[in-house]
Write a structure and sequence with these properties.
Length: about 120
């Protein structure tokens, strides 16, 4: 299988450093998951997220002229989130607006009643 930018592939973590993790891909090629591409949150220690020998799915994000392969785990979760938010809403806009107006009116009535109870009206 050829490795191209944008591919999602599986590999085995072969080494962890303070700047990322090396992942061996099918075909024996090795790529680097930079520390900034490990997770959506701040990563202080790569070893808190990955361990040697672990099999991971990664996205190929770059291949430079020297053949160095840049990988990302973080971008896989972003792709999933993107897909989640691009789905069409189950309700029509009018239905959602109607629900919002109803909830808003109920909240205003509750607030008004609480205010009246506090002031003794």
């Amino acid at each position: 299988m050829s490795i191209d930018v944008g591919n999602i592939v599986e590999g085995k973590v072969t080494g962890i450093t303070n700047f990322g993790a090396f992942v061996e891909l099918d075909g024996g090629e090795t790529g680097l998951v930079h520390i900034s591409e490990v997770a959506d949150t701040y990563v202080k220690e790569v070893s808190n997220y990955l361990s040697e020998g672990e099999t991971v799915k990664v996205k190929v994000i770059s291949i430079d002229d020297d053949g160095k392969i840049g990988l990302s785990i973080k971008q896989l979760s972003k792709d999933k989130k993107k897909a989640k938010f691009t789905k069409a809403p189950k309700k029509s806009f009018d239905d959602m607006m109607s629900d919002f107006m109803k909830e808003s009116k109920e909240r205003q009535q509750d607030l008004q009643q609480n205010l009246e109870n506090k002031t003794g009206r």
